[in-house]
Amino acid sequence: MRILVTGGAGFIGSNFVHHVLEHTDHTVTVLDKLTYAGNRASLDGLPEDRFEFVQGDITDAAVVGELFGRHDAVVHYAAESHNDNSLDDPRPFLDTNIVGTYTLLEAARVHGIRFHHISTDEVYGDLELDDPARFTENTPYNPSSPYSSTKAGSDLLVRAWVRSFGVQATISNCSNNYGPYQHVEKFIPRQITNVLRGERPKLYGAGENVRDWIHADDHSSAVLTILEKGEIGETYLIGADGEKNNKDVVELILTELGQPSDAYDHVIDRPGHDMRYAIDSSKLRTELGWAPRFGDFETGLAETIAWYRDNEAWWAPQKDATEARYKSQGQ
Ligand code: NAD
Ligand code: TDX
């Protein structure tokens, strides 16, 4: 297959590109705008005969149309992805997540191309800490933030284009990812790189919020499975049973880096902060036979910490500006 990956210079997209080139014979083209979140260096060293990079915007119908005409499948990762940024300035989230997805769907309709849409468990809103429930494919949509509401909107556009126009699409909603190449604005890389620079980790509020962590490489294997075996029109939830509260994650990072486990600061909480996410991925496991490789969060976290320790040149250029921005907001 010739696969077009939108947002392939971002965190999860770049992990997917590495995964595909390593584990399959497919060729890959990345279409990425290289916003503040995109990093060309995340794609360094890939085989030139199987990999192409195109800098461009998914809202640009001409660029999108030309690329759709010469690929067999599209995996759509490109998005504005950070909740805190969406509280500060929602507009780019509407442009990329809604209008961008619309632009891709219209091209998919014209070219009859196989389309996989990447989404998030945040479209379902949040769960209480003491609720035994987990999200399933049938959980009603109830997004909380400008980010998650634009992702929910994009999911609904995909469903409508499947039903109304017969677009050959699938959707996956995944839980929180961690792993290499994640921007230092996000929770786990922010805390690791703070400790590596001698700064204290910053926990929003009491730190009781729970996220269901999955390694980005496991997300990639799940997406590849859906692309190859998924049923058109279906949605699949992706998760690896990795529920942990933020306080426990910070303590694990501090301990792994040889610091006292209480050497962190509590900072101003995120407005509207979702309490808990939890994924039931039985459908993907039972119907398509997928299973995660990183069964154990602690092992994946230790590998991730080692990656940030060894790759300071990759993250250092973004660190000061990111921290200055958080500091100006009391975080
Ligand atoms: P990211 O912010 O690291 O990367 C996004 C990439 O998209 C960047 O390379 C950026 O340059 C590119 N991009 C942004 N706007 C663009 C545009 N208009 N045209 C072309 N490229 C554009 O994001 P991520 O964390 O890798 O998330 C990727 C996808 O996975 C998103 O759709 C996100 O909603 C979804 N997702 C993320 C998580 C998570 O934990 N990070 C979990 C579930 C789902
Ligand atoms: O410094 C911090 N301190 C802190 O306590 C930061 C940056 C975050 N947090 C908390 C907020 C969340 O409870 O950590 C948790 C994780 O925060 P983020 O990394 O911002 O992720 P989240 O808001 O959960 O969203 C992520 O997972 C779902 C991705 O950014 C989304 O793109 C994805 O859809």
Automatic annotation (TrEMBL):
Domain NAD(P)-binding stretches: 4-303
Keywords: Lyase, NAD
GO MF, any single term: dTDP-glucose 4,6-dehydratase activity
InterPro entries linked: dTDP_Gluc_deHydtase, NAD(P)-bd_dom, NAD(P)-bd_dom_sf
Catalysed reaction equations from the record: dTDP-alpha-D-glucose = dTDP-4-dehydro-6-deoxy-alpha-D-glucose + H2O
Pfam families linked: GDP_Man_Dehyd (PF16363)
Highest rank taxon of the organism: Bacteria
Transmembrane annotation, as ranges: none
Needed co-factor(s): NAD(+)
Enzyme nomenclature, EC number: 4.2.1.46
Protein family (similarity comment): Belongs to the NAD(P)-dependent epimerase/dehydratase family. dTDP-glucose dehydratase subfamily.
Family matches, as NCBIfam families: dTDP_gluc_dehyt
Protein name: dTDP-glucose 4,6-dehydratase
Organism the protein comes from: Leifsonia stereocauli
